[in-house]
Write a structure and sequence with these properties.
Length: 321
C-alpha cells in the first residue's frame, strides 16, 4: 500500500517542526516547500539523517517547486510573515494575503484532492482566502488555532490545580485573537468542573473566579507572551504539534473532536464564515460540527468574536482579495 503524502508549505520554524513530527509519527512521506533555495532541502536532509536514531521510516524531501507537491493527501500551510513594529493590520493583511493567494494557486494546480490545514495569520482571513482561491470543498479546508488555544488553556489549568494536563478537558471557541472564547463552564478535570476544584482550593468563590479570569486572559494573550520571551520570532512547536493532531485525525480517520476553524452553515447562528468550533475530523475532513448549548454570556462573547472575524473578511475584500 502506498504511503500517504504530506506537503508542508513554508519551511520556517513551524514548517521544520511539522516535518519532524510528521516523520516521527510516520504519517506519510513528506515534502517541505519553501521559496528560499536549499533551505527546505537542508531541513529535510537533517531530519532524515535522524531516522535511524528515532526509528521512523518515511521519505523526506525539500523543494522550491510546487510541482513536487503533486497529489498530496494533506497540505499544511504556514507561509506568511509575522507582524513587525510599525506595520499596520492592513499592511499585514495585504502582505500575507498576497502570499496566501500564491500558495493557494500552487496547491490548487498540483494537489487538487488534498485536505488543507492553514496555520498562517491572520488565521480566519487566510483560511477564507485559501478556500476562495482554490474552490476546494469547505469541509476539506480548515484552520488550526483552536487546538493550540485549547491546549494552552488546559496547560494553565493543570499548573494551577497541580494535576496532569492529560486529564484536563478545556476548549476555546471563536476567532484566533483577543476575542477568542475560552469556555470556562465546560472546563473539567476528568468530568469534575474546574471552577468547583478552584473553589475547593481557595475556599472562596470570588478568588476562584479571579484565578480563572487570569487564566482566561493569559490564554488570550499566550501567543504574545511567547513572542515577548523569545525576543525574535513566535511560537512554533505548539502550533506545529496542534496541526499534526488534526492531520493525524484525518489521515487515520480517528474521528477526533477538535476545535477547528471550520466553515459554518447555520451552526452557532453563523452562516458563511470560518469560525473556531468543535468539529469531528476524519477521512472526509470536517465531517460534523458539534454544537454546544451556550448561556447568554458565552453566546455574547462568541458573537463578539464572530464580529471580529467578519471584520477581517470585510477588510480583506476591501483590499481587493
Amino acid at each position: 500500500m502506498a504511503r500517504k503524502k504530506i506537503a508542508l508549505i513554508g519551511g520556517g520554524q513551524i514548517g521544520g517542526v511539522l516535518a519532524q513530527l510528521a516523520a516521527q509519527k510516520e504519517l506519510g512521506d513528506i515534502i517541505l516547500f519553501d521559496i528560499v533555495e536549499d533551505m527546505p532541502q537542508g531541513k529535510t536532509l537533517d531530519i532524515a539523517e535522524a531516522s535511524r536514531v528515532d526509528g521512523f521510516d518515511v521519505k523526506l524531501n525539500g523543494t522550491n517547486s510546487y510541482e513536487d507537491i503533486k497529489d498530496a493527501d494533506v497540505v499544511i500551510v504556514t507561509a506568511g510573515l509575522p507582524r513587525k513594529p510599525g506595520m499596520s493590520r492592513d499592511d499585514l493583511l495585504t502582505t500575507n494575503a498576497k502570499i496566501m493567494k500564491s500558495v493557494a494557486e500552487g496547491v490548487r494546480d498540483n494537489a487538487p484532492n488534498a485536505f488543507c490545514i492553514i496555520i498562517s495569520n491572520p488565521l480566519d482571513a487566510m483560511v477564507t482566502l485559501f478556500q476562495k482561491v482554490t474552490g476546494f470543498p469547505h469541509e476539506k479546508v480548515m484552520g488550526q488555532a483552536g487546538v493550540l488555544d485549547s491546549s494552552r488553556f488546559s496547560t494553565f489549568i493543570a499548573w494551577e490545580l497541580g494535576v496532569s494536563v492529560k486529564d484536563v478537558n478545556a476548549m476555546v471557541l471563536g476567532g484566533h485573537g483577543d476575542t477568542m472564547v475560552p469556555l470556562v463552564r465546560y472546563a473539567n478535570v476528568n468530568g469534575v468542573p474546574v471552577m468547583e476544584m478552584l473553589e475547593r482550593k481557595y475556599g472562596d468563590t470570588n478568588i476562584a473566579k479571579e484565578v480563572m479570569d487570569a487564566m482566561v486572559q493569559r490564554t488570550k494573550l499566550a501567543g504574545g507572551e511567547v513572542v515577548k520571551l523569545l525576543k525574535t520570532g513566535s511560537a512554533f512547536y505548539s502550533p506545529a504539534s496542534s496541526a499534526i493532531a488534526m492531520a493525524k485525525s484525518i489521515l487515520r480517520d480517528e474521528k477526533r473532536v477538535l476545535p477547528t476553524c471550520a466553515y459554518l452553515k447555520g451552526e452557532f447562528n453563523v452562516d458563511g464564515y470560518y469560525v473556531g468550533v468543535p468539529a469531528v475530523l476524519g477521512e472526509n475532513g470536517v465531517e460534523r460540527i458539534i454544537e454546544l448549548s451556550l448561556n447568554a454570556e458565552e453566546q455574547s462573547q462568541l458573537d463578539n468574536s464572530i464580529t471580529a472575524v467578519k471584520g477581517l473578511v470585510v477588510d480583506m475584500d476591501r483590499l481587493g482579495f
